[in-house]
Amino acid sequence: MSPHHGLSISTVISASCPGFPGHWPCSCIPSIETKTERFRLLAACTFAGGLARLVSLLLVGAPSLGHVAGLCIELLAVPALVWWQGHVVNKASGTGQFSGA
Description:
This protein is an all-alpha fold. 66% of the residues lie in helices and 0% in strands. It is built from 3 helices and no strands.
């Protein structure tokens, strides 16, 4: 296991909130507009893993292409998904404005 992989995995495991076993992103799909807190908690855990990959990249050097792809997903796609989920919540509530909640 590369140092990049080890740092990322350890961060995700420590940030993944042991009180929420089995509540991974797929558990948010049905009625996603009602699961903002869970979705954002899981997104934050994933984003923390991306930050760990970024620290590893800075400390150890360039990782494999797969790790760079994971870094991009964790630091770019996950925030985009949080924005999208907020948009879905607002559409469902009928406000049409992004409130961040």
